[in-house]
Each structure stands twice: as C-alpha cells, then as structure tokens.
Amino acid sequence: MIVERQNNEIIVRFSAGTKASKIQSILDYLRYEELTAKSIATEKELDALLKVAKKGRLNRIRKETGLDG
C-alpha cells in the first residue's frame, strides 16, 4: 500500500491482489466520515429521520406490490 499527499488530496494505492470488497468497505466508511464530519445533528434527530425514511420505504413497497389497499 502506498499513501501520497497531493495538493488537498490523499491518494492511496493498493496492489492488484487486494480484495476489492474489503477496500470498498473501508472507502464507504471513510466517505461516511467525510460526509458527517461537520454534522451537528443529535442522535435523537437522526433516529427520528430514520423512522420517517423507513416508514416511507414500507409505504412505497406496499404500493409497488399492490398491498396498500
């Protein structure tokens, strides 16, 4: 693995033999950290948002499968 800093970026290089799925999991976590680094949302607010998102998802699935009425 090689780590380089260029301008305002960090570049990481892996050998071709490294499992892509493991690298993707790490990249997903780093992206999450990048996106939430400046968040001021509380855990309570995030739980409420998640509840709304899940409810909307269930309603969409019911509609798509014809189970809504």
Structure notes:
The chain contains 2 helices and 2 strands; from the N terminus they run E-E-H-H. With 69 residues, it is an alpha+beta fold. The chain folds into 2 domains: 38 residues, no CATH class; 30 residues. Strands 1-2 form a two-stranded antiparallel ribbon. Strand 1 and strand 2 form a beta hairpin. The N and C termini lie far apart (55 Å).
Keywords, please?
two-stranded antiparallel sheet, 14% strand, 2 helices, alpha+beta, 58% helix, 69 residues
Q: Segments where pLDDT lies below 50 for 5+ residues?
A: none
Radius of gyration: 19 Å
How many domain modules? 2
Count of DSSP E strands?
2
Strands of the widest sheet, in order across it, are 1-2
Number of helices: 2
* CA-based shape: elongated
- Cα separation of the termini: 55 Å
> What fraction strand?
5-15%
Helix and strand sequence: EEHH
Helix content: 55-70%
Sheet with most strands: 2 strands, antiparallel
* Computed structural class: alpha+beta
Task: Look at the structure and give the mean pLDDT.
Answer: 89
What would a concise description of this structure say?
By secondary structure, this protein is α+β, with helices and mostly antiparallel strands. The protein has helices spanning 20-36, 43-65; strands at residues 2-6, 9-13. The protein has 2 domains: 1-38, no CATH class; 40-69.
Q: What secondary-structure arrangement, pairings included, does this model have?
A:
Layout: E1 2-6, E2 9-13, H1 20-36, H2 43-65
Antiparallel strand pairs: 1-2
